[in-house]
Design brief:
14 strands, binds 2-acetamido-2-deoxy-beta-D-glucopyranose, disordered N terminus, 7 helices, elongated
């Protein structure tokens, strides 16, 4: 007997428990469907480029993670050595560490990064001035501006400036690259005596000798919708660019800010 005729044919009372069990099984079936995770929740699992740095919202790996798992402007790529790479003004910066808890990251120009093992003979390739995409990344507190001078004749440099040579120029290996803080007293002397390009960069303050500081890089802070409320309720953060809004992907469905409790 099918359930419809069961409902519409008058029956003695003892048939009614059967109706209840139909309703019960239908309920079980329906809740099972809604328990299978939302596809975006599964898609937006954290990943790595090969080293131990976790890549998750607001960052996403271009071509390997969906843009909706990250925030606009936070696409990164992976270097063959397993380090994540951030493009700033068309220059590769190696991401040495991401501090998700305080929205900051340490990066270093790939050309002289401590994390770049392929920098041959300590020679420094040409590079570009650091410029930040204003709305996304900003310089963290306690960073110092630095200028790199290419094409310096190391023999004509006084002893106190020999300490500031960070390597030979990759373009002309007989010449040197000198790194000076913007406020250093000898900037004008170096500027006059170095014939190559002049590049603005940053280092973290108080790291030690300038050679080491340049290789270690500097700290940036970022601005993106906060993920903590969503992740604390078991969700995965993301961004829907069609409506230009933060999204919280939960096991049941997509939410605006956080997963509903229970
Ligand atoms: C990654 O982390 C594991 C465990 O914490 C550690 O044993 C390993 O050496 C790390 N690898 C790298 C490349 O840092
Ligand atoms: C980063 O910049 C380089 C050099 O301009 C470019 O070839 C590369 O496609 C860029 N990568 C990304 C992820 O934007
Ligand atoms: C974020 O935390 C890390 C680790 O505690 C720290 O080294 C870094 O300076 C902090 N970033 C900022 C912008 O304060
Ligand atoms: C390391 O430095 C070399 C030479 O400056 C550069 O060509 C290469 O792209 C850098 N490696 C990475 C992983 O960016
Ligand atoms: C970097 O910017 C300075 C001005 O601040 C400019 O003189 C210099 O040519 C720029 N360097 C490069 C490599 O574009
Ligand atoms: C560099 O600066 C120091 C301190 O002001 C000064 O004594 C020295 O003469 C300068 N050297 C050159 C080559 O300008």
């Amino acid at each position: 007997m099918n359930p419809i005729s069961l409902l519409f044919t008058p029956k003695p009372l003892y048939y009614y428990p059967l109706i209840h069990s139909y309703i019960f099984f239908f309920y079980l079936f329906a809740t099972n469907i809604s328990c299978s995770p939302d596809p975006n929740f599964d898609t937006c699992q954290p990943q790595t480029c090969g080293n131990n740095q976790t890549i998750t919202y607001p960052f996403y790996i271009h071509g390997r993670q969906e843009p909706f798992c990250g925030y606009p402007g936070f696409d990164i790529s992976c270097a063959p050595n397993g380090f994540p790479i951030l493009n700033l003004s068309n220059t590769h910066y190696i991401i040495d560490q991401i501090f998700y808890q305080n929205q900051s990251l340490r990066v270093s120009n790939a050309v002289f990064s401590i994390s770049n093992t392929s920098t041959t003979k300590g020679c420094v390739s040409p590079t570009q001035n650091l410029t930040l995409p204003s709305t996304v990344f900003r310089v963290a507190p306690n960073q110092r501006e630095l200028t790199l001078f290419y094409g310096c004749d190391s023999l004509s440099l006084p002893r106190e400036l020999q300490d500031h040579i960070i390597g030979c120029s990759a373009e002309k290996e007989t010449s040197s690259v000198v790194a000076l803080y913007k406020d250093a007293e000898n900037v004008s002397f170096v500027a006059k005596n170095c014939k190559g390009e002049v590049v603005d960069s940053l280092v973290e303050d108080g790291v030690g000798r300038v050679q080491e500081a340049v290789r270690k890089g500097f700290l940036l802070s970022w601005t993106a919708s906060d993920c903590s409320e969503c992740s604390n309720t078991g969700g995965k953060c993301g961004f829907d660019s069609s409506i230009y809004k933060f999204r919280c992907y939960c096991t049941d469905r997509v939410h605006a800010a956080k997963c509903d409790p229970g």
